[in-house]
Specification:
about 550 residues; Ribosomal Protein L25, Chain P; seven-stranded mixed β-sheet; binds adenosine-5'-triphosphate; aminoacyl-trna synthetase
């Protein structure tokens, strides 16, 4: 494995190991199982796993499952699959919900120390009394309940004597703190909901701010890495670890979230796209989810290289989606076999080629990687070309087929267009050409030059295939400020998917799901694992060949 690029968190780890503050780095990746992982999570996964890997440490996969209403085992399973697919192995596999009893006991400890109280205010009242950045908050009238009363009420909360929202447990810190997070934050809420892991055992659940530091401390995590929006919670994180008298003292470090152009990067929004049927599930190839990228044809290597390149910093930024494209092209350049596919077929008859004859032509599998060898492709009197590669009345600089013009058929011969056959509506349905046997590819013919080279597939052996062409899911507008009254759903690209029916070379008929190819002149494609059948291969466009992106 290549070492990860340097970043400020890595420097902290190096210092902590050197000074003896920690003797082993322990990190964790802590997703909430309320959706599928996206490429933003990949950034966090790479950071946590690579950091521990590099310094002989450990990384846990921990499900931060403290909100029963939104969580599901489907998500748990998908997250495990995605982390493994990215190429990482976790040391411990944990669920925050396995620590509920210990968390409860720590909350009881806080109550006994006079550091937590049961509060009967409604969420609205609490919000009103919380104050603002410039005004201190007001203390709850329930703040000075006795330890005995608090213990009794908290026990009864656990026993299910109260309804959702009737009571909460709050930390007793400082309603005058300039940091709003420290103004007696809620530690536990009541929720009579069935939990994916603990079922109906609990009807009170810890809040993230209370649960997360305890989870880290219980597992002995040394460097707890989260995104920048949690920076203001760091004092509370430290308060919880300290006041709960945790033996291990983890520290929180924040880094900038990954944002990418022309997409959305939050499970809430991605779930909306799924639920509102803008896409065909979490693994739709247009989604920035790991499962979507996998189905689209991205490789773990390309995603990891991308994460390495974007680095880890403390300032938020927007990364151009073209950068991800760059890394998949780089990864597939030498690996993916080249092939020819016709997306929008137009029949060509080569009138001077013997009827009934089929010859086999040699074609390189990958000119950039000659070790991949040679494939054989049939050629005969009838072939398909792209509709785009013929124009009856060409504009200037159009060097492909038009009446009277000669082009090279890749791996085959020069052909010249003589006739255009149309249907009764005037649509071109067939082109008649003649070929020149002397111009056969590989024979070293230098007699004359042509300006255009086009691809083709022999008609009688051509295998039908479906091509799915993708464009960004979200239009540019989302990059800027959303206009008033609009949501990101107003910026969903209505043309993000185009499905066309075409043909592939016969040697492609057994292509397996997830096989990746470079279709000559079209780009890189992945055999779709979801809808491909024995009868019909479906190819997802991963990325086109053209790129203006420079690193
Ligand atoms: P979302 O808003 O997408 O639900 P989240 O932060 O709530 O994101 P979690 O399941 O809590 O999702 O995330 C697990 C880990 O992944 C957290 O440590 C979080 O900081 C990190 N993470 C989530 N989104 C990104 C992102 N866009 N870039 C970098 N790290 C991220
Ligand atoms: Mg979260
Ligand atoms: Mg979230």
């Amino acid at each position: 494995n290549k070492p990860s690029s340097s970043n400020f968190i890595k420097s902290i780890v190096i210092d902590d190991l050197k000074s003896g503050k920690v003797d082993k780095v322990i990190t964790r990746f802590p997703p909430e199982p309320n959706g599928y992982l996206h490429i933003g999570h990949a950034k966090s996964i790479c950071l946590n796993f690579e950091l521990a890997d590099e310094y002989g440490g450990k990384t846990n996969l921990r499900f931060d499952d403290t909100n029963p209403l939104k969580e599901d085992v489907e998500y748990v399973e998908s997250i495990k699959e995605d982390v493994k697919w990215l190429g990482f192995e976790w040391d411990g596999l944990f669920f925050a919900s396995d620590y509920f009893e210990e968390m409860y006991n720590r909350a009881v400890l806080l109550i006994k120390k006079g550091k937590a109280f049961v509060c009967d205010l409604s969420p609205e009242q609490m919000r009103e009394m919380r104050g603002t950045l410039t005004e201190p908050g007001q203390e709850s009238p329930y703040r000075n309940r006795s330890v005995e009363e608090n213990l009794d009420l908290f026990g009864r909360m656990r026993n299910g004597e109260f309804k959702d929202g009737e009571k909460v447990l709050r930390a007793k810190i400082d309603m005058g703190s300039p940091n709003i997070n420290m103004r007696d934050p809620v530690l536990y809420r009541i929720s009579h909901a069935t939990h994916h892991n603990t079922g109906d055992t609990w009807c009170i659940y810890p809040m993230y701010a209370f649960a997360h530091p305890l989870e880290d401390a219980i597992e002995g995590v040394t460097h707890s890495i989260c995104t920048l929006e949690f920076e203001d919670q760091r004092p509370l994180y430290d308060w919880v670890v300290h006041e709960c008298e945790m033996e291990n003292v983890p520290h929180q470090y924040e880094f900038a979230r990954l944002n990418i152009t022309n997409t959305v990067m939050s499970k809430r929004k991605l779930k909306l796209l799924v639920d509102e049927k803008f896409v065909d599930g979490w693994d739709d190839p247009r989604m920035p989810t790991i499962s979507g990228l996998r189905r689209r044809g991205f490789t773990p290597e390309s995603i990891r290289a991308f994460c390495r390149e974007i680095g880890v910093a403390r300032s938020n930024s927007l990364v151009d989606a073209k950068m991800l494209d760059h890394f998949i092209r780089e990864d597939l350049k030498l690996k993916a076999p080249r092939t020819m596919g016709i997306l929008r077929p137009l029949k060509v008859v080569i009138t001077n080629y013997p009827e009934g004859q089929v010859e086999m032509l040699d074609a390189e599998i990958n000119p950039e990687n000659p070790e991949m060898g040679i494939r054989q492709i049939p050629f005969s009197r009838e072939i398909y070309i792209e509709q785009d590669d013929f124009m009856e009345v060409p504009p200037s600089k159009y060097h492909r087929l038009y009446p009277g013009n000669e082009v090279r058929l890749k791996h085959a011969y020069f052909v010249k267009c003589n006739d255009v056959i149309k249907d009764e509506n005037g649509n071109v349905v067939e082109i008649h050409c003649t070929y020149d046997p002397e111009t056969k590819s590989g024979t070293g013919f230098t007699g004359r030059k042509v300006k255009g080279t086009i691809h083709w597939v022999e008609a009688s052996n051509a295998v039908p295939a479906e091509f799915r062409l993708y464009e960004p899911l979200i239009l540019d507008e989302e990059e800027g400020e959303e206009e008033e009254g609009k949501t990101f759903l107003d910026y969903v690209n209505p043309n993000s998917l185009e499905i066309v029916q075409g043909f592939i070379e016969p040697n492609m008929k057994d292509a397996e799901p997830h096989d990746k190819f470079q279709f000559f002149r079209h780009g890189y494609f992945n055999v779709d694992p979801k809808y491909t059948t024995a009868e019909k291969r479906i190819f997802n466009l991963i990325v086109s060949l053209k790129s203006s992106f420079k690193l």
